[in-house]
Amino acid sequence: MRFAKLALSSLAVLGIAAFGVSAIAQQPPVAPPVDQPAAPPVVTPAPDGAVPATPATPDATAPAEPAPVVAPAPAPAVAHAPAADHGEEHAAGGDHHELTPKGGWKHDGAFGTFDVNAMQRGFKVYKQVCSSCHGMKLLSFRNLGDVGGPFYDPVYPNPNDNPVVKKIASEFMVTKIDPDSGAMVPMPGIPADAFPSPYANAIAAAVGNGGAVPPDLSVIVKARNGGAGYVYSLLQGYVAPPAGLVVNSGQHYNAYFHGDTGSQWVGKDPRNKPPGGFLAMTPPLQEFDIRLQRDCVEGAQGGTSCDQNTFDDGTPTTIEQQAHDVAVFLAWASDPKTEARKQLGAAVIPFLFLLAILVFLSYRRIWRNVEH
Amino acid sequence: MSGPSTYEPSNGLTKWLDQRLPIVRFNHDLMTFPTPKNLNYWWTFGGILAVCLVVQIVTGIVLAMHYVASTQDAFASVERIMRDIDYGWLIRNIHANGASMFFLAVYIHMFRGLYYGSYKSPREVIWILGVVIYLLMMATAFMGYVLPWGQMSFHGSAVITNLIGAIPVIGEPIKTYLMGGPAIGDPTLNRFFSLHYLLPFVIAGIVVLHIWALHVPGNNNPTGVSVKDVKKDTLPFHPYYTVKDGFAIIVFFLLFAYFVFYAPNALGHADNSVEANPLQTPAHIVPEWYLLPFYAILRAITFDIGPIEAKLLGVIAMFGSIGILFVVPWLDTSKVRSMRYRPIAKQLFVLFVVAGIGLGFCGANDPDKFVFKFGPDKLVVNYVDTSGVAQVSGRFDNFEGAGGAQEFIAKLPPSSGASVAVSEEGFKWLWLSQILGAYYFLYFLVFLPLLGIIEKPKARPPSIADSVRKKHASVPAAAVNPAPVAAE
Questions:
Q1: Alpha-carbon distance A128 to A329, whole Å?
Q2: What is the pLDDT of residue B477?
Q3: Angle (nearest 5°) at CA A129 between A125 and A131
Q4: How many angstroms separate the CA of residue A46 from the nearest CA in chain B?
Q5: Tens-place pLDDT, residues B434-455
Q6: Helix or strand holding residue B392 (H, E)
Q7: Do the Cβ atoms of A341 and B420 come within 8 Å?
Q8: pLDDT above 90 (res B40)
Q9: Among partner residues A138, A222, A359, which is closest to B76 by beta-carbon distance?
Q10: Up-side HSE of residue B394: CA atoms within 13 Å toward CB?
């Protein structure tokens, strides 16, 4: 009779397991966050960001949630901040004082999701600023329209059909073999193409940048200690070098760079050397308009008859905001499956927890007459 | 110990099969195997490890379908698995974190064996096979870490292959065969991939031997007292230990799932998301956490002994620290298996665990950095004196002002090339790793042999059944063991 009961309890365990498996299998595709307007705002491919948008009257299509307000970057406390530990220009840095946006990152935590508006604005920053020197070769244009991506549209489950993605792809020139001549010619991209790298190879990149190769940004947030916070801080870290710090030509002092200032801190107490380091990249961000405007692409929500200038999400054009948005975009680009991963975890862990309780009860039952 | 098989084929097919391939009988005998009734949760890690091996092999086979073993494509192919393969991110996160979980479990399993004396007669062969599995696991994990071809992959493999090159006479040829040429490149990656695929199956084979060897003398148990009466002291493996191991495995999976879903990169290193670049060496090359204690022992040897150079000594110490495990059954002279009844050994064992974990921290830190500082940082001046000899000044508190470093420089001739440097004094990680590394060897080479002679063990229970009855002394005897199935 004991084994009949055993069989019953194992059936119950199997039932729970089946429930768990079906719960995992039926994970719905990520719905657009509820705070999005019915028509997801998309980047207008303005040739430059300076197109003045008419200040819009608040209307129903504006996002219910204002764009995240990021904390203004405090001037780094140069004299008192701990000095950088290491002197190498790579990931193993020693600065531990990255800035964090006010309220933290929306994508942090067990249930955090990427801020779609920030990702879209961040992509605009990548396209107009970063992409002139930095490639993103591990991503394809279609990834932008994947579930959880910045331009995901539930109407187009296949991102290759997404008109916004198609339009973005067509704005990049991708070098391909011309089927008529066999020559390598630049032609407008399609969603299946990978993001083009701005330089043909590392040597060309080094020659074009005074010996420093701009790193590919595909996995940059995973590849730096500090992650998105490092990108966010670095882009705001171009502060005036403190007096006594020798900055060579072609170098730029950055208070958050994982570097070392010791050798160029001349005639001063080396214990007080400023944090950060020197990098070849000029301060990349200027103030420009990163407000999201409604996209007027045939097939996209909004259609062709929309007016680009009637939408304004109220995003400030500050460097802080740009740094925040591009950091969010690059965090997504480094690990596009973050949301899917956390969602599956939210199903698996409670399932395992229940299963553990059931198996523990079975254990108690089987062992109840055994002294041990 | 299992005695004659109790299996009786129930129908024509199983009778026919039993005379030709008694595989059903084999399984029946495994399931009814008499297992001491007092095993605690530390004994569940054997089952957990079996599951870990299966998880690694299954996920690894899927990953191998998508991975490209070429220095040009390896990094991108791993990222492609994370981005474009259906549930590739899940499979890879399970495989990468699964290695850490595997080692976590194996360390607990080994510490359990050391504490309860599971290596002692008649279980020496089980222990030795276990150490072989552990060695193969380290080799497999090391080669697996090279495959994603990140910065740590590349430079870590350079450090390890160079170690092998430090072995006199045979080191260089072995190193060349391992790398497939004079430097790490495509041939290295290809043979590491091939071996990384092969070794888990070698491990699986030795696991079979390990379990076979276990089923000859049977399990040790927390008292270390041998089974006297199979009926009173033991339970059939199934269902008693299948359900107990099953529960432990699920709890272990909860921890595993936390890392896979919420902290997949927590046990890794940011540098390994940078594609390998032979021309740019990371500031700190560190192996994965589970190899750190041995890395600390390697780096702890900074001194030559006689004609043997520090580098070779370090290699000897590192391999010796693993090799010593093979002879533990003969280093421990005590007749008492379980340290429950060995008051001194128990305390030294706790220190040994602390030393092992401490060595892990030493391995993760720069040996020349400080565990703690003796005082605030001071300044020294490096300069060349009038006779052309490099000198270091005394220590200064201040940079400016009277008695400061600047004042000292002002007195030197301009040709002295004086420069100010920070002078830190503190307790170095190197020293800590030397102390803990020395304890590691002392434990095995001095304490275990000596304690068997000088230690006076406490009284052991006469049998397993007695040891569990004592705990439940207040329970009425009638309620203790009414079920006759318990001991069958």
A1: 14
A2: 43
A3: 100
A4: 29
A5: 999 999 999 999 999 999 999 9
A6: strand B390-392
A7: no
A8: yes
A9: A138
A10: 7
